[in-house]
Design goal:
Radius of gyration: 20 Å
Largest sheet: 7 strands, parallel
Bound molecules: nicotinamide-adenine-dinucleotide, magnesium ion
Helix content: 40-55%
Shape: globular
Structural class: alpha/beta
Strand content: 5-15%
Strand order of the largest sheet: 4-3-2-1-5-6-7
């Protein structure tokens, strides 16, 4: 593994065709002298993956859905890149022997097994796939410790906390304060949320992101998942991880220390900042991210969360406190609910209601192994689909 200015960091990307993956490849293009792409994996967009293969010349490319393999095969022939398909292909990228760092950027529960496999292979995992920590945080941490792997957060809030805690003692942390923009519906009248459309929900005021996380930002489920993620990354109990609304998205998060001193990390709202930090840590590289000029920034505001506007946040705290499999059910129900909302099968407030219904029926049990987690994920999805089919939430 490179620590200093020595050889290039060799990178494998899970989810290279998504919002995070594409931004990581943009960074790799800007920092060609520091980053080398050795393996790429995507879900279904084989055409884009093929273009990425031609541009970045990895040694291995994999696509989960093999139906678009023709385009990829042509790119593979031209570049000599090996190809792999299905879940096996994802795992081959996750455990690629030449990678120093695996960027885990598949969205949702689909990222769990590949992320776990990267940890089992002892890699540095630059973790964007927060759902895997929500579903199986204890297992991920144990696996990392057992195989000498490290987890470096990509999420901007956790990257901020990670940066604030460089050189600090974790025992001296009093509270973590995660900032949230509040999403596109922060000031919309509550009674009109039932009419909110997918298009409106996808129009995030600060960040340009994938569809699922954009809806999660509108409900604040994203922040609920991030509270759980912060627990597994930094070890604080949930009553010491709080959320502050900060509409400008400039303070990426804060840490309050034992003596009352509050440390904050700031930057422009450009995900390439935290991605670059995770790929290069502990080094700080001169990359393409625009610099922050506070003199020309809007005034910074910090506001409390309105619980009635964002019921998903309390559901996430409650699921974590219920323990065991409850966060798995929370995540699965949310994934189904977001899909249903985007597909026009559920009104916006129905997302929280569906998650609440699934959690209400769920009997939390221990999920000691990965297969237990995946089984619980499947059964919570079935429960969510059954409730949706009853149309009681419409
Ligand atoms: P996205 O929807 O833009 O991209 C998802 C990627 O996952 C794509 O490459 C897709 O092909 C792949 N994928 C989807 N289903 C798959 C499957 N079944 N098997 C294999 N691959 C599959 O999502 P995104 O916004 O890039 O988010 C990725 C992760 O990063 C999420 O966990 C999200 O919460 C997290 N994250 C994203 C941002 C952001 O700015 N986009 C910020 C912080 C955290
Ligand atoms: Mg975030």
């Amino acid at each position: 593994m490179t620590k200093g200015g020595g050889r290039k960091r060799r990178i494998a990307i899970l989810g290279s065709t998504g919002s995070i993956g594409v931004q990581a490849l943009d960074l790799a293009a800007h920092l060609e002298e520091r980053f080398e792409i050795v393996a790429l994996a995507a879900g279904s967009n084989a055409d884009l993956l093929a273009r990425q293969v031609l541009r970045h010349r990895p040694r291995l490319a994999a696509v989960a859905d093999p139906s678009g393999r023709a385009a990829l095969e042509a790119a593979g022939r031209e570049t000599g890149c090996a190809l792999a398909f299905g879940e096996e292909g994802l795992l081959a990228v996750a455990g690629h022997p030449d990678a120093d760092v695996v960027l885990a950027a598949i969205v949702g529960a689909a990222g769990l097994r590949p992320t776990w496999h990267a940890l089992k292979s002892g890699r540095i995992v630059a973790l964007a796939n927060k759902e895997s920590l929500v579903m199986a945080g204890a297992l991920m941490r144990e696996t990392a410790a057992a195989h000498g792997a490290a987890i470096v957060p990509v999420d901007s809030e956790h990257s901020a906390v990670h940066q604030c805690l460089r050189g600090e003692r974790v025992e001296e942390v009093e509270r973590i304060l995660l900032t949230a923009s509040g999403g596109p519906f922060r000031t919309r009248p509550l009674q009109s949320l039932a009419a909110a459309t997918p298009e409106e929900a996808l129009r995030h005021p600060v960040w340009d992101m994938g569809r699922k996380i954009s809806v999660d930002s509108a409900t604040l489920m994203n922040k609920g998942l991030e509270v759980i993620e912060a627990h597994w990354l930094f070890g604080l109990p949930l009553d010491r991880i709080e959320v502050v609304i900060h509409p400008q998205g400039i303070v990426h998060s804060m840490v309050e220390m034992a003596d009352g001193s509050v440390l904050a990390q700031m930057g422009t709202a450009d995900m390439r900042g935290p991605i670059q930090y995770a790929l290069g840590a502990p080094e700080r590289l001169r990359g393409p991210v625009p610099r922050l000029d506070l003199r020309s920034s809007p005034p910074l505001e910090f506001l409390p969360v309105e619980p009635a506007r964002y019921p998903c946040l309390a559901l996430a705290y409650a699921a974590f406190r219920a323990g065991g499999s409850a966060p798995v059910a929370l995540n699965a129900a949310n994934e189904i609910a977001v899909e249903a909302f985007l597909g026009g099968r559920l009104p916006f407030p129905g997302i929280a209601r569906l998650v609440e219904e699934v959690l209400g029926r769920h009997r939390a049990a221990a999920v000691p192994a990965l297969d237990d987690v995946l089984e619980c994920d499947r059964s919570a999805r079935r429960a969510a689909e059954e409730i949706l089919a009853m149309k009681v939430l419409a």
